[in-house]
Structures are given as C-alpha cells and as structure tokens.
C-alpha cells in the first residue's frame, strides 16, 4: 500500500477495452487501491483517427475524466494516445500521468537475428515518437512494421468470447512477415494494448520461436512506483465494485461493458464532455 493512510485511486484510460490489459498487470502485481477504468466509446477506435482530431479530443476527455473521478494517478493505456498527446495531458492536469509507448527497447535487446517486428495501429506508426524510439534503441537492427485496425477489432471480439477470425488475423501477420527479411523476425512488439488480448492467437500464427513483447507489466510497475508501492505476488483476482467510465455514444457498448465486468468494473457511468 502507499505510505500514507489514503487508499490510492488509479484511473486507467483507453479508447476501448485494450487498456484492460494494463488493469490485469496491476491486479497481477498486487495493486490494493481503488481501480477505475475509462473508455472513450464515443470516439473509438483511436487508431484510424487524424492527429488533429485526437489532439483535440484526448486532452478534453482526460480533463473531464479526472475532474469527475478524482483519481490520484492517470494511466493512458493506449499507445496511439500516448505517442500523440501524453505531454499535452501532463501540462493540463495536476496529478501524475503514466503513458504507454511501444516496447522497442526490450525487443531490440531480446532479438537474436537482428530483425524485429512492430505490430501497432496506423496512428501509432505515424508518430514521430515511435520513430524516435526506433532510432534510439533499434537503429542497428532491421525493423519491420505493420499498422492494423483489424487486429484491434479482433481483440475486442475475442475478449468478449466471440470466435477469432484466424483468416483475418493471418493476413495481418503476413503483412508483417512478408516484408523483406520478415522471415527472420524473432521478436515482435505488440504496440497496442488491445493486442495482448489475442496473444495466444498471434503466437500460434507467428510460431513458438517468435517472442511477443508488450508494455503491460512495465506500465504497471511504473504506476506502482509513483504511488510508492512495490509489485508483489497476487492472485490476479479482480476487486468487485469498481467503476467503468464511458464517453457519450449513441449505441450502448454492451460488449465492452460485459468484458469490463469480468475485471471487476460493475458500476457504469457516463462522463459528459463540454
């Protein structure tokens, strides 16, 4: 627990349900405070939106969420949002903000062949931030990338208990491995928090000799550190009675609500944007 008597409140945010993979890491590491989850259901998915639209939207929704929920720490559990708007959000709120960025560094360190792949959304791959990570940590390697909204959609369907469309997913994987030197890829960065939701399916398509790396545990450790907590062994059991916050949308996101309930988010509230 944190060093003061107040139970810490962590709010995890994404456009859809992908950030629940960060929630899972926090639960696995024994976070004992209050957890809330927020999804921008009225603007989902972020991966195919323009930079200008996202730059306007994300800080506005983040501010509304923080004012409404009053968390102690805010986790942007979305690579697309973080690589574009993390610094802006930090400037306009008065609590710690943790971002999520592609795990390029650990992937570069793990590769034996010198060829790594990056699976992300198109938005994440457009960012200068992502290019900077590749230049800093993997410029001595061959880096192949593919941006996919289809995998985001597949992740949401599979998380809700629907059957995976392996043909669709295979085409997305082959869009990466069919590139020059793609057959030498031995490490793949899952640079979208949705993608660990279909880790098993992706692993079967890449093969057992390809290592899949995501940022989930690293983000959870950083969050705990800022709250003066240490990771510990836990049963990864959701705490009941947690709150799910949504942005206004014409169609009720039944699938997201169903999946969030499995993580302990039983109360649903809509946060209005001015």
Low-pLDDT stretches: none
Overall body shape: globular
Q: Strand fraction band?
A: 15-25%
Overall mean pLDDT stands at: 92
- How is the biggest beta sheet arranged? 6 strands, parallel
The side-by-side strand order for the widest beta sheet comes to 4-3-1-2-9-10
Percent helix: 40-55%
- The value of Rg in angstroms is 18 Å
- Tally the beta strands: 10
Class from secondary-structure proportions: alpha/beta
Report how far the terminal alpha carbons are from each other. Answer: 35 Å
Helix-strand topology string: EHEHEHEHEHHEHHEHEHEHE
Total number of helices: 11
What does this structure look like?
It is built from eleven helices and ten strands. With 274 residues, it is α/β, with parallel strands linked by helices. It has a six-stranded parallel β-sheet with strand order 4-3-1-2-9-10, with helices on both faces. Helix 2 (51-69) packs across helix 3 (79-92). The radius of gyration is 18 Å and the shape is globular. The model has no long low-confidence stretch (mean pLDDT 92).
Secondary structure layout:
Elements: E1 9-14, H1 20-28, E2 34-39, H2 51-69, E3 73-76, H3 79-92, E4 97-98, H4 104-110, E5 115-120, H5 122-126, H6 128-138, E6 142-147, H7 150-159, H8 166-177, E7 187-190, H9 199-206, E8 211-213, H10 216-226, E9 242-246, H11 254-262, E10 265-270
Parallel strand pairs: 1-2, 1-3, 2-9, 3-4, 5-6, 5-7, 7-8, 9-10
